[in-house]
Specification:
383 residues; alpha+beta; 4-stranded mixed β-sheet; 4-stranded antiparallel β-sheet; globular; binds flavin-adenine dinucleotide
């Protein structure tokens, strides 16, 4: 099933490299990361050393410019091993894209080579406590004073916000204009008036920090603005359209890990004097899980390929990939727990972790209800 004939030699090499690191070096640490919530410094360093942190960065800025499909292949492998590490790996991409899309030459030179080498990690801050799905309803505001913006308010749910060397923060410069009043600013830690809030205690992806950001009369130079004033929402939506297939890839990785664990267990575990894999009820569950994971993988690859081919809008395919793969991961991980019976419910086996980790893929980068809205809007047009 992994004989994906359409991959180029480069894509295959990137997948194989990511697979080797993920299986040999990242997977053995995943249960520890889950148990302790430790930040996966070493795992990220390994990915950086192999050049995998800059897959989305143009060559001119030290990246591999390998494309969306190559990135999805690597993301699936990392997620198979450790979804928390994969989340930070994905956010390197999510935080880097706005700079690739809208950065000035100076901004690109300042950040992209360091993102590509893994010297710094990146973050992307759109959501707030009162506005997640309705992102344009944000309240965190910036007022221009001469050559600075003065920012007041808070952002929430910022993956890697406590560790990032650069964060793209979306603020409103004109609340009444909603989406058209959103402006993107690049910020670095250590700014006066900027602080990082507490790390959320979550159901899963424990090694991936999720924090609030607070701004109190925080002055940010105008030269840190990405694009024009009021262009922030467009930058955010373009970024999400490109990154949603990568969440799909993360979900495929979790789903494949759950399927692999359930398959291995079914062959070992005996009941009624035979392996449980001999029961057709279990065989059909495994077959359904395999179909769903493989189908999701192909849909993710299709969306990523559309992006690589520069189609004008891949919004629908991108949302389908994210939504279908994450719903699949949740179902497959839940079924894997079922196949492991009582043991599946314990921390002795990884499937309960897969189930907890899978859930977030249905929520972040737009909940699956929001993905369905995007798909329906593309289907129906303006009513
Ligand atoms: C672990 C984690 C990491 C995250 N990382 C980041 C990050 O790095 N950067 C960032 O900016 N954000 C991040 N987020 C935020 C995430 O994207 C939001 O939580 C998500 O978009 C949902 O927003 P909300 O939580 O405000 O839910 P709400 O918008 O309040 O939604 C609540 C429920 O209502 C549903 N709903 C809302 N509107 C509609 C509608 N129009 N039609 C049908 N149903 C609807 C939703 O689907 C959901 O089920 C993260 C969140 C988590 C939990």
């Amino acid at each position: 099933m992994n004989q994906l004939y359409y991959l180029t030699d480069d894509q295959r090499a990137i997948r194989d490299l990511a697979r080797e690191i993920a299986r040999e070096r990242i997977a053995p640490l995943a249960a520890h990361v889950d148990e302790t919530g430790e930040y996966p410094h070493e795992q990220l360093k390994l990915l950086a050393q192999q050049g995998l942190m800059g897959l989305h960065v143009p060559e001119a800025y030290g990246g591999a410019a390998a494309g969306s499909l190559a990135f999805c292949l690597a993301a699936e492998e990392v997620a198979w091993a450790c979804a928390a590490t994969a989340t930070i790996f994905l956010v390197q991409n999510l935080g880097g894209y706005p700079i690739v899309f809208a950065g000035t030459e100076a901004q690109k030179r300042r950040y992209l080579p360091r993102i590509a080498s893994g010297e710094i990690t990146a973050a992307f801050s759109l959501s707030e406590s009162g506005s997640g799905s309705d992102a344009a309803g944000m309240q965190c505001a910036a007022v221009r004073k001469g050559d600075r913006y003065v920012v007041n308010g808070s952002k929430m749910w910022v993956t890697n916000g406590s560790h990032a060397g650069v964060i793209t923060v979306f603020v409103t410069t004109n609340r009444s204009q909603r989406a058209k009043g959103v402006t993107a600013l690049l910020i670095e830690p250590g700014l006066k008036g900027f602080s990082v809030g507490k790390n959320e205690r979550k159901l899963g992806i424990h090694g991936s920090p999720t924090v609030a950001l607070h701004f109190s009369d925080c002055e940010i130079p105008v030269e840190n603005r990405l694009g024009e004033e009021g262009e922030g929402f467009k930058i955010a939506m373009r970024t999400l359209e490109h990154s949603r297939p990568t969440i799909g890839a993360q979900a495929v990785g979790i789903g494949q890990a759950a399927l692999d664990a359930a398959t291995a267990y079914a062959k070992e575990r005996r009941a009624f004097e035979q392996p449980i894999a001999a029961f057709q009820g279990i065989q059909f569950m495994l077959a359904d899980m395999a179909m769903a994971v493989h189908g999701s993988r192909l849909v993710v690859h299709h969306a990523a390929s559309l992006i690589d081919h520069g189609v004008p809008s891949a919004a629908m395919e991108s949302s389908i990939a994210k939504c279908m793969a994450s719903d699949t991961a949740m179902k497959v991980a839940t079924d894997a727990v079922q196949i492991l019976g009582g043991y599946g419910y314990t921390r002795e086996f990884p499937v309960e972790r897969y189930m907890r980790d899978a859930k977030i893929t249905q929520i972040y980068e737009g909940t699956n209800q929001i993905q369905r809205l995007v798909i329906a809007q593309q289907l129906l047009g303006k009513l």
